[in-house]
């Protein structure tokens, strides 16, 4: 019997990501990834212990692709933070089914650590340090990850907004009106507008 071929973490992550992109997060299983790789399910257990480990590999595969090079050093700090936030949004948004996993596994990701280190360097140059820098970094991470989730799992152009716009005006006048207005806001305006509000607060 031939010896099973060796698999690298990159191959495992790519196969798992392919399954998620094609079948959704619910389709991720040891069996599905083994089939994608052309190996037996039991053979896959030689490399990973369970689905949780596969998820961590996928998150690192996606977040590790984020460009963490410092933006233009002469640009204002707000512009540089906006560039970095946009890079994270674009990279994760290319695989929307992975978005929920980034919340659970981001602390294990070297990609997020490198992104955060670059953001912290920009914030430090802007004069933030100590507890305020901690709060600002977490606020930025929370905003970007939350905004990505809303964009892909509950977009303004989706059925949820349509349903809200149809609420009885007598009972929910403001919700109905806001939902109607929301249908004219595209994803970029929503993301950048919310980020600008956050950066305004940081600047103050």
Notes on the protein architecture:
The protein has 204 residues and is mostly helical. It folds into two domains: 9-63, Homeodomain-like (Arc Repressor Mutant, subunit A, Orthogonal Bundle); 77-203, Tetracycline Repressor, domain 2 (Orthogonal Bundle), CATH 1.10.357. It is 68% helix and 0% strand. Helix 5 packs antiparallel against helix 7 (110-125) and helix 9 (159-165) packs across helix 10 (173-182). The protein is flat. The N and C termini lie far apart (68 Å).
What does this entry show, briefly?
The chain is mostly helical. Helix content is 68%, strand content 0%. Helix 5 runs antiparallel to helix 7.
Average residue pLDDT: 91
Q: How much helicity do the residues have?
A: 55-70%
Biggest sheet, in brief?
A: none
Helix-strand topology string = HHHHHHHHHHH
Approximate shape: flat
* Share of residues in strands: under 5%
CATH fold title of the largest domain: Tetracycline Repressor, domain 2
Cα gyration radius (Å): 20 Å
**Which CATH C-level class of the largest domain is it?**
Mainly Alpha
Domain module tally: 2
Task: Specify the CATH architecture of the largest domain.
Answer: Orthogonal Bundle
Structural class given helices, strands, pairing?
A: mainly alpha
Q: What low-confidence regions span 5 or more consecutive residues with pLDDT below 50?
A: none
CATH superfamily of the largest domain: Tetracycline Repressor, domain 2
Cα distance spanning the termini: 68 Å
Number of helical runs?
11
């Amino acid at each position: 019997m031939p010896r099973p071929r060796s698999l690298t973490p990159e191959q495992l992550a790519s196969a798992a990501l392919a399954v998620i992109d094609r079948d959704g997060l619910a389709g991720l299983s040891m069996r599905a990834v083994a089939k994608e790789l052309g190996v037996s399910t039991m053979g896959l257990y030689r490399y990973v212990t369970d689905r949780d480990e596969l998820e961590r590999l996928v998150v690192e595969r996606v977040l590790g692709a984020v460009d963490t090079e410092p933006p233009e050093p002469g640009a204002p700090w707000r512009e540089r933070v906006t560039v970095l936030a946009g890079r994270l949004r674009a990279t994760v948004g290319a695989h929307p089914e992975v978005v929920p996993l980034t919340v659970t596994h981001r602390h294990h990701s070297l990609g997020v650590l490198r992104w955060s280190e670059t953001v912290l360097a920009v914030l430090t140059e802007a004069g933030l340090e100590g507890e305020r820098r901690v709060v600002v970094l977490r606020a930025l991470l929370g905003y970007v990850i939350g905004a990505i989730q809303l964009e892909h799992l509950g977009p303004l152009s989706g059925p949820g907004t349509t349903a809200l716009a149809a609420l009885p005006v007598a009972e929910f006048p403001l919700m109905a009106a806001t939902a109607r207005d929301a249908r004219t806001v595209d994803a970029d305006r929503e993301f950048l507008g919310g980020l600008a509000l956050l950066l305004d607060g940081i600047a103050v």
